[in-house]
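I'll show one example:
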Amino acid sequence: MKKTACVFFLIACLLQTTAPVYSQTISGDINLQDVSSGKSFSFSSLSGAKGIVVFFTSEHCPYAKLYEKRIVTLAAELKGLGIHTVLVNPNDGILSPDDAVEKMKGKSYPFPYLADKQQQCVKMFNAQKTPEVFLIKASGSNYELVYQGAFDDNPMSEEEVTETYLANAARALAAGKAVAKKMTRPTGCMIKSR
């Protein structure tokens, strides 16, 4: 009896630790202001892209600031692979004056920098932190989530990075290969959701 109970316990443990097939859909689209151009932006405007990197950032979070140069460098490489990048600032300019649209306009990025002051995009992705990245690809009228989490494994020092999570996932997507690591835990400042 004791032996049978142990066998059932082990089987139950194995079943619980078996990871489910990773599959998540992002439904719908967005319509947000690109503070750089003043124009409205939607994911559907990038139809034909192999993928889209959605990078949640902030002007006040020290962790997000550490990634400004890294995201610009990676975005240039990924654009050549057919993957576009957009930055999304979800913070309220009243609660966080550094994140006001006027402050955002002071930045010059070679890709859209979106003001998500009503947190439309935050809710769509269930983003929790800045910085936090999502890699998506079109799937019919929706988007498939390919990767979610941290940009890489060392926010403090680019020179000491040993694993480039987002870059690895994006390169695999562009090459039509399976993404090995689909989710990691981001490090940064909590998004203040309303």
